[in-house]
Design goal:
Number of domains: 1
Number of helices: 14
Radius of gyration: 20 Å
Distance between the termini: 41 Å
Strand content: under 5%
């Protein structure tokens, strides 16, 4: 049972991963010093949007063991929350942007109370159905949402560099918030449910309540990312909620390292930047990432971060052995 068995080990591992996540964030903060192209800064901004979705989905799937197929749908709902409040009622972004986290979070709370009593493929199928229903409702509500024409959203800043650091700050805040949650008692409960749901319930953990909290927070993170993306693109559309967008998020987490703090950050940046580089090759990019997901899921379940950690451990053991032999 993993609830309190090795809390110090878990905290030390989380602290190590958080330090590496900070190193990734610092590296991203230095990128504009070397990259002046507005196009590539825009690519990195979108990669940080996907990184926030990846962090939110990883909290639910990687740390709680609940497989949702709706992160992109909740990002779409967050974007439309900000857009509709601004378009119809002229609500300033200072209010409408925080609401992009609150409204999807409340929807996630209501949905979670229903679907998180399910497990296995039923949860995935239910969230997939919800995602498609939400997208089709927005697509067909032309008088309210403008349908496939999209909805204009005011910009927080017109500066490409300003948007870059805005997204970086939001990503850092989300990552640090998840880190603090995972260090807490609730965080250990989440991981206990992932490892052994029946055993966790037998130890007195309210499984449905804890899973619902994780679902709520995951939905709120995705919604906030969608609201930020809308203010950057100055447009939201039903395409934000396409299932293919969720597929990209899952690929990022699996390739980067599921159930780790640093994995989603690495995976999001690498996958999205590589996707842009392969754009001229047509649909081959989706084939490449699908194959990578299969390979990593089958042979390297801890992703790139797991491979890096294993290489570091082997190097340390080799150094220690050489020192002892000397």
């Amino acid at each position: 049972m993993t609830i309190p068995d090795h809390p110090n080990f878990l905290r030390n591992r989380l602290t190590q991963e958080m330090r590496l996540a900070l190193a990734v964030l610092v590296a991203l903060a230095l990128v504009p010093l070397a990259v002046g192209s507005p196009y590539w800064l825009g690519v990195l901004i979108v990669s940080m949007y996907f990184a926030m979705l990846a962090v939110g989905w990883n909290l639910l799937a990687g740390y709680t063991g609940q497989f949702s197929l709706a992160p992109a749908a909740f990002a779409m709902l967050g974007g439309y929350t900000t857009g509709l409040l601004s378009w119809h009622w002229k609500v300033p972004l200072a209010i409408s942007l925080p609401m992009s986290a609150v409204v999807p979070g409340l929807i996630g709370l209501a949905l979670g109370r229903i679907v998180l009593r399910l497990s296995g493929p039923y949860l995935a199928l239910t969230t997939l159905s919800f995602a498609e229903i939400a997208r089709l409702v927005i697509y067909n509500s032309i008088d309210f949402t403008r349908g496939d024409q999209g909805l204009n959203v005011p910009a927080l800043t017109e500066s490409r560099l300003g948007n870059y650091y805005l997204f970086l700050g939001a990503l850092a805040a989300v990552t640090f918030g998840v880190y603090l949650l995972l260090r807490s008692r609730t965080g250990r409960f989440l991981q206990a449910i992932r490892d052994d749901e029946i055993g966790a319930a037998s130890r007195g953990i309210d499984v449905v309540r804890t899973k619902t909290l994780a679902f709520l927070l995951s939905c709120a993170i995705c919604g906030f990312a969608g609201g930020l993306y809308g203010s950057f693109a100055q447009l939201v559309s039903p395409e934000l909620g396409l299932i293919s967008q969720t597929g990209i998020v899952i690929a990022m987490v699996v390739i980067g390292g599921m159930g780790t703090l640093v994995g989603p950050l690495i995976g999001a940046v690498l996958v999205y930047v590589a996707s842009e580089m392969l754009r001229d090759a047509g649909n081959i990019q989706m084939i490449v990432f699908a194959l990578l997901v299969i390979v990593f899921a089958r042979f390297f379940r801890e992703g790139l971060w797991g491979l890096a950690r294993g290489a570091i451990a082997r190097t340390r053991r080799g150094s220690a052995g050489a020192a002892k032999g000397a």
